[in-house]
Protein: Beta-glucanase
Amino acid sequence: MQSSDKTDEKRWLGRFSNIDAITGLCVLAVFLFGIAAAFSSKDTRNLTVVADVPIYYPVAPPEAAPAPSDAADKLAPEAAPQPAPAPDQPQAKQLANSSPAFISLLGDDRLEASYYLSQSKAPRDFYGGRWAPENIESTANGTTFSVKKEGNTDVPFSIAEASTYKRYGYGRYEAIMQIGKGSGLVSAFFTYTGPYFGDPHDEVDIEFLGKDTTKIHFNYWRNGKRGKFATFDLPFDASEGPHLYAFEWLPDRITWYVDGVPYYASELNDPFIPKTAGKVHFSHWTGIPKMREWHGKPDFGTEAVTTVSCSSFTPMGEDKRSCSDVYKEKKNS
Structure:
């Protein structure tokens, strides 16, 4: 009886040994299959090395975090770390017609040397006033862009806009601006090209509404189609002093900055990222009555001013003097 028990015991132990061996082989096979599948996947974004300081989107300043506005345009992309380019990825090419780096200290530099001043005799499109070159002036603090009441029923307002003669592509765009305050006003810093120039409508924007200058708006367009725009609260009132605003437009992503802090970015490889070099624009305007639901009824007195004291462009992959340097120098002084 005892001998039989020992035989059964050996038999059961042998079975468990076989089961353990089979289980181990199964686990090893699954592990090897997972590795093979990962490396054979066409989408290798999850395998790339994350940058030393990963950026998550939307991005908020560490101290006073801007929350997305309660407005209808709360379309921030889901949070995702920004991957670094793969080592074997070819360097992205600059867009055709893109010009070299520049920096303009507006107020000191003669604006007309680099910028075209928009001009019209009457309101057109969705703009509620005539473009008036005389509403752009150089001052000790920078170049002012004024919106004025005209007292004319047909032309109730005069508005201001300047755009570069040259076109610019991938790189970092910066401006130091103090925004005009008052319901009905729109201040904008953006790149644009479109059918007027024989191009698709491509655009990257930073916009402010004078009715609430504690908010900032980010937009982008490709071939007339709008990407995922967003509105953020600022930790300051943009009408009370100059601040540094910027966006970095790259082939696979656009990132927007306020005072050097990243606030928002498009999704990686978003199909709405522009692909055509455009002109740099600054504008200050009020719209036709249909636009008042967005920017408010004009109620800013007889004149309101947006001031731009610096504008710069640094091409992708280059390191040039920019408005960031000017802003730091002014703060330090």
